Amino acid sequence: MLKAKDVMTKDVISVTKEAPIYEAMELLLKNEITGMPVVDDDMTLVGVISEKDCLRLFYADEEEKDKTVQYFMTQPAVHYNENDSLKTICDFMMINYFRRIPVTSKEGKVVGILSRPDVIAHILQIRREETVRAG
Questions:
Q1: Beta carbons within 10 angstroms of residue 21's beta carbon
Q2: What are phi and psi of 81, to 5 degrees?
Q3: pLDDT single digits (tens) 86-133
Q4: Is the pLDDT of residue 135 over 80?
Q5: How far is residue 10 from each of residues 13, 110, 133, measured CA to CA in Å?
Q6: What CATH code is carried by the domain that includes residue 20?
Q7: pLDDT in the model for residue 116
Q8: Could you give the number of structural domains in the chain?
Q9: What is the per-residue pLDDT for 118?
Q10: Domain ranges, residue 14
């Protein structure tokens, strides 16, 4: 059975809840990602910040524009354990239209992120391997 840790991206781009919201937005754009985990200094997951969360700035008044990630992030963050089934996570992502899911250790520390592109890359890898075996 495939697990989250078998397919997830291990080099996770994350931000702290104290970071200015504009810094988080720069990270999203620079790294071409649609969201990222919000963590404490010890990598404990505290929330998620997504493009959708950042869109609130379009409607923000001047006071809100100086807020930190904590003000805009989604919390609590939906996450899965690194040993959870890939099928279970994909089922959840399909039903809830999530683009990414933080993956945590037993202790709640972020150890990876599982995104739609991660799963698509895995599907293509399996297809290539099947084609090589058949050919």
A1: 24
A2: -80, 150
A3: 999 999 999 998 999 999 999 999 999 999 999 999 999 989 998 888
A4: no
A5: 9, 9, 29
A6: 3.10.580.10
A7: 94
A8: 1
A9: 95
A10: 4-134
**Half-sphere exposure (Cβ direction) of 103: Cα atoms closer than 13 Å:** 25
List pLDDT tens digits, range 9-19. Answer: 999 999 999 99
Residue with tokens 């039903």: 95
Q: Distance of CA 59 to CAs 14, 36, 49, 54, 64, Å?
A: 25, 22, 17, 10, 9
The reported pLDDT for the residue numbered 84 is 97
Assigned token pair, 2: 């495939």
Scored b (16 or more CB within 10 A) or e, 66-89 reads: eebbbebbeeebebbbbebebeeb
**Buried b / exposed e across 37-56, counting CB within 10 Å, b at 16+?**
bbbeeebebbbbbbeebbee
Q: Tell me the backbone φ, ψ of residue 17, rounded to 5 degrees.
A: -70, -20
Helix (H, G, I), strand (E, B) or coil at 36: strand
Query: H or E stretch including 22?
Result: helix 21-30
What is the greatest pairwise CA distance in the chain? 63
**Letter for the amino acid at 134?**
A
pTM of the model: 0.89
Q: Which two tokens stand for residue 56?
A: 């609130």
